[in-house]
Design a protein that fits this description.
By secondary structure, this protein is an alpha+beta fold. The chain contains six helices and eight strands; from the N terminus they run H-E-E-E-H-E-E-E-E-H-E-H-H-H. The chain has a domain of 141 residues: Ribosomal Protein S5, domain 2, CATH 3.30.230.10. The chain is flat and about 115 Å long.
C-alpha cells in the first residue's frame, strides 16, 4: 500500500511539474513577442544600384593620318608616332590637332586635346558656305565653292574630314599644290576662317540682306 501511495505521489508531482513548465513557456513566449513588438524596425541599408546610360557626346573625332617619325638624338634615333585628328560637332565648329607620342593611343589623345583648343567657327548658310573662298598652307592651297542642295561634299582626304565635321553638306572643293594631309587640313581651316556672314557684309554696305542677295 505504501508503495502504491508513493507511485501516485510521484505521478502527481510529475503532472504538476509539466503544468508549471507549460506555464513558464507561455510566459516566455509572450515576453519575447512583446520585446519583438517594442524593437524598432531597422531600415535596410542596401542601396539601389541605378544603371546610368552613357550620354553620346556631340563632338565627333576622325583620325586623318598616323605616321611613324624619327628624331636623331645624341644616342641614336628616337622613334615616335605623329597623329593628325579632326574634331567637330557638325554644327559650325571644327578644329585640327597634331601631336606626337611614343604610343599611338597617347598621340591620338593628345591630338584630340589640341584640336579642342583650336576650334574654328564656320558660318553656314543652307548647309553650305556663304561664298567662294581660297585658303593656303605651305605649298598647298584649297578652293571652296558653295553648292546647291543635293550636291553633297565634293572633296577627299583631309579636306572632306574637315568639311563634314564642320557641318557642311553641299560644297565643291579643289586641292592644288601639295598633297600632304597636314597642309590640306590647314589650308581648309584657313579658308573657313576667312568666311564672312551675309548680315555683316550687308551692314558694311549699308543695305539689307535681301537687297544684297537680290531677293524680293
Amino acid at each position: 500500500m505504501e508503495e502504491n501511495k508513493e507511485i501516485q505521489e510521484t505521478e502527481i508531482s510529475n503532472e504538476e511539474q509539466t503544468a508549471q513548465d507549460a506555464v513558464v513557456e507561455e510566459e516566455s513566449s509572450q515576453e519575447s513577442s512583446v520585446q519583438e513588438e517594442k524593437k524598432p524596425q531597422r531600415k535596410s541599408r542596401r542601396r539601389k544600384i541605378e544603371t546610368v546610360e552613357p550620354v553620346e557626346s556631340e563632338w565627333k573625332e576622325q583620325v586623318v593620318q598616323i605616321r611613324r617619325v624619327t628624331k636623331v638624338v645624341k644616342g641614336g634615333k628616337k622613334l615616335s608616332f605623329r597623329a593628325i585628328v579632326i574634331v567637330g560637332n557638325k554644327k559650325g565648329q571644327v578644329g585640327m590637332g597634331v601631336a606626337k607620342a611614343a604610343e599611338v593611343i597617347i598621340a591620338i589623345q593628345k591630338a584630340v586635346a589640341d584640336a579642342r583648343k583650336n576650334l574654328v567657327s564656320v558660318p553656314l548658310y543652307n548647309a553650305t558656305i556663304p561664298h567662294m573662298v581660297t585658303g593656303t598652307s605651305g605649298a598647298g592651297s584649297v578652293i571652296l565653292r558653295p553648292a546647291s542642295k543635293g550636291t553633297g561634299v565634293i572633296a577627299g582626304g583631309a579636306v572632306r574630314a574637315v568639311l563634314e565635321l564642320a557641318g557642311v553638306e553641299n560644297i565643291l572643293s579643289k586641292s592644288l599644290g601639295s598633297k600632304s594631309p597636314l597642309n590640306a587640313a590647314n589650308a581648309t581651316l584657313s579658308a573657313l576662317k576667312t568666311l564672312r556672314k551675309f548680315k555683316d557684309v550687308a551692314a558694311v554696305r549699308g543695305i539689307s540682306v535681301k537687297e544684297m542677295l537680290r531677293q524680293k
